[in-house]
Amino acid sequence: MNFEHILAHHLVDRKFSHHIIARLPFLGAVDLGLSPLIVTMWIACAISVLALTFAARSQSAAARRARAIFEPAALFVRDDILEPIFGRHASFYLPYFLTLFFFLLTCNLLGLVPTMSGVTANPNVTAAMALCTFGLIQFAGIKEQGLVSYVVHIVPGGVPWWLWPLLFVIEVFGMFAKCISLCIRLFANMLAGHVVSLAFLCMIFIFAAMNKAAGLGMTVPAVGLALFIYVMDVLVSFLQAYIFTFLTALFVGGAVHPH
After folding, report:
1. Strand 28-31 to strand 21-24: parallel, antiparallel, or no bridges (unpaired)?
2. Does residue 6 sit within a domain?
């Protein structure tokens, strides 16, 4: 059993063998080839939109049960994450953070489904989401303070003028570091579950290579441990969606309220 091959097959973004080449007048030949990560993200988007739309608009008994699940989560994001940080600005940023939370949660859970790619266990995806956070920080700061005031307040007040340029550079690097930490935290936590589960399952084949009886005896504990990690991954999926959303709100809130 090739541990590296299995992990790469599940997490590395590879295009399907048959891809689409579109020829656009202003760009020439553009590769629109699909990959498992892209398809999984599309599926996550479709599930989120359809499930939330059904829960919000339908009057059926199933929709009422769905609302009983989704509404507490939406209220938690609004009342316990956004309002304490953004105050009166919370309603303006609520759609983005609800989209972020439910999209992340759906992607995290889809990564646990066999044949699906671990979207949030791929650093390219988490880096793109962290880049969105960085862009939102700049947008929120400029929108609420104005461009000049936002740039001035990047450095805390009361700093001597001769020290301001140095601290400005440090604060900007710190802003990048916050977003990089978001990327690495989500990627590492979601990847860890896949790695540990595969490691336990690979133990069966490692022991079987030494002795068939040992491999057979290792089957039950290895599968049991892998299932335990799988259940823990479900909890981690919810936790990481919350942490990413909360930290994004915290970083953006610092730009909205500089003092």
Report:
1. antiparallel
2. no
Contact partners, residue 37, CB within 8 Å, separation at least 6: 13, 117, 119, 122, 124, 125
Q: Identify the segments of the chain with pLDDT beneath 50.
A: none
Residue 59 structure tokens: 């009057």
Domain assignment present for residue 159? The answer is yes
Give CB contacts under 8 A, 24+ apart, made by 200-208: 200/225, 200/226, 200/229, 201/1, 201/226, 202/1, 202/3, 205/1, 206/1
Pull the structure tokens for residue 149.
């005031």
Domain that holds residue 78: 34-256
Distance, CA of 90 to CA of 222 (rounded, Å): 47
CA max distance for the chain: 74
226-252 pLDDT tens trace? 889 888 999 999 999 999 999 999 999
**Beta partners for 29?**
23
In a domain, 110, yes or no: yes
Q: How many domains does the chain have?
A: 1
For tokens 């610092």, name the residue.
254
